[in-house]
Amino acid sequence: MTQDGPDATSCHCGLPAPYDDCCGRYHRGDAKAPTAERLMRSRYSAFRVGDEAYLLRTWHPSTRPPHIDFDETLRWERLEVLGTTGGGYLDTEGTVHFRAHYVVRNRPGHMEENSRFVLQEGAWLYVGPLTLLPRIGS
């Protein structure tokens, strides 16, 4: 499942760099996300472009599903990072609170999650939600 690409001036994740220079380099394996927030942003972009391999590669083995079931009726629209704790260059764990906006069957909605991340063998990994708020509008 791929969705429309970002324009030349911004990435799907909301940062001002072009996709290839931002999340694309993580998806291709050219670099590793340096912080928990950058990993979360790159995972949002991976959901948007349907990059199952990247999502599974960056999911902690203790919580990783065997595959990703992409919802073909859902279109990711934008990402808001609402807050972070830890997850920096000198940390080994962190959280990222975010809201991801989508449209499904022409109805807008969003999902909000406070996610836990850990640094393992030099790579940030998504562990799972600390809190998952109900989807709105689905």
Fold and architecture overview:
By secondary structure, this protein is of the alpha+beta class. It contains 3 helices and 4 strands. The chain has helices spanning 23-28, 36-49, 52-57, and strands at residues 74-86, 93-104, 107-120, 123-136. It has a 4-stranded antiparallel sheet, with helices on one face. The longest helix has 14 residues, at 36-49. It starts with 22 loop residues before the first helix and ends with a strand. The mean pLDDT is 91.
Order of helices and strands: HHHEEEE
What share of residues are in beta strands? 35-45%
Q: Which percent bin holds the helix content?
A: 10-25%
What structural class should be given to the helix and strand makeup? Answer: alpha+beta
Number of helices: 3
Number of strands: 4
How would you characterize the largest beta sheet?
4 strands, antiparallel
Amino-to-carboxy terminus distance: 19 Å
How would you describe the oligomerization state of the chains in this entry? Answer: single chain
Shape: globular
What descriptors fit this protein?
3 helices, alpha+beta, globular, 138 residues
